[in-house]
Amino acid sequence: MSLEQAGFKVDVVDSVSKAENQLIILKPDLLLVHSDMTGDHGLNFCQFVKSSEISPRPIIVFLVDEFNPDERIEVLRSGADDALSYPLSGKEIAFRIMAHFRRRQETHVNLLTGLPDVIIANNVLEHTLKEVEDWAILSIDLDNLRVYNETYGESRGDQMIKALAAVLKSVLTQDDFLAHRDSDDFILVTRSDRAEATAEEICRRFDYIGPRFYTKEDAQRSYVIGIGSKGIRRRVPLVSISIGATAKGRRNFSSAVEVLQVARDMRYLAKSKKGSDWVSDRLRLAANESSFKEKRIKILVIEPDASMSLLLKDTLEMEGYFVDVAHSTPEAWDMINNWQPELILLEVDVVSDSFDGWGLTRKIKQVPELAGTWIIMTTKNPDHNKALESGADLYLPKPYELQVLFSEIRYLLRTRIKSGVLL
User: Fold this and answer.
1) For the CA atoms of the chain, what is the radius of gyration?
2) Which range (142-146, 223-227, 292-296, 389-393) has the least confidence?
3) For the chain, which domains are there?
4) What is the Cα–Cα distance from 345 to 376, expressed in whole angstroms?
5) Cis omega before residue 116 (within 30°)?
6) Residue 353, CB half-sphere, CA atoms under 13 Å: how many?
7) Going along 249-338, which residue ranges are E strands?
8) Each residue's pLDDT tens digit, 293-325
9) 348-359 burial: b if 16+ Cβ within 10 Å, else e
10) What is the spatial distance between Cα 18 and Cα 212, in angstroms, rounded to a whole number?
11) Alpha helices (H) in 79-109, listed in sequence order
């Protein structure tokens, strides 16, 4: 009762044999054992615990009778980490156990960032999978760090990793968990409804500070010159972030290892994108999830070709956006005023009796309430100056790759991301 009141989760068994049977299942952080239960000062029990494949190995604390001081010495000799003499108050037991956990936390931290290490991370993942009702996992690392280290030195690279850790700490809520597994590999545990918004905010904050770690020349041209074997030079983009996300309920997870692998798979997909980015395995939202739709970034696709508009709508929705389609400029103008999308993907050559795509762009930018809407103009027209002068924020010549489109959309929207918005 004292330990539970102090915030610990406690399981109780009434024999050593039961404890041994439950050890691998429960994977406890600490074992509090009455010395009379073992019959051999705990020797066989301590050996069994230390031979078990649990990492980190559970802390072993024995309770011994204060009138039997020799027993205290014997259990310590058998391999116990501590021996407490009873009777003693529940408050003292709780504080003594807290002291053991504090020492463990100091042992299992990454020396560079001071965050929990891979051992603690794995245990938290296992616990999360079994005990937590709502969770999401973000797997995070840096891209192009090796070339940065080769160019600027590993000590500067370590500063980059510490900066990433600071960014990750800055987005945490009270219930989140952050660990530094290895090198530039981090995991963040949060709620499922915060996963994508948190990933986006991490990318935005890191992209804001990242160029400060470069010379002015490298930062302005957005690449460094990597030197390969035999004097080969190549342009390497600046260090960026890749994040993979998954959450409870999206798959039938059977282990923490599987959860971590899925998050990493999503992270590898993010690496195929330009700059800092994230990929989630979130399924397309169901039609009745209107409250979630209202929080997502709205994109209006203006495309006269029905098959092309359907393709764009489907692929953008799979990216997590809320998408609607218009096939003419009058229809688009009504939707823009009523729906007010954050971004418009406009095929400028859309035909209309009243005004064409060029005229629609000018109309949008002339209305103060709509002027801030991003417009990506897609066209086969080679006159990019005409497109930009009409008010387009981005000129994207046809044909284009969808991944290029997605990268450019994220780049535009990231400059004005709002807290709590799901992309």
Assistant:
1) 29
2) 292-296
3) 2-107 (3.40.50.2300), 118-280 (3.30.70.270), 290-414 (3.40.50.2300)
4) 5
5) no
6) 0
7) 277-280, 298-302, 322-326
8) 455 789 999 988 888 888 888 888 877 788 999
9) bebebeeeebbe
10) 58
11) 90-107
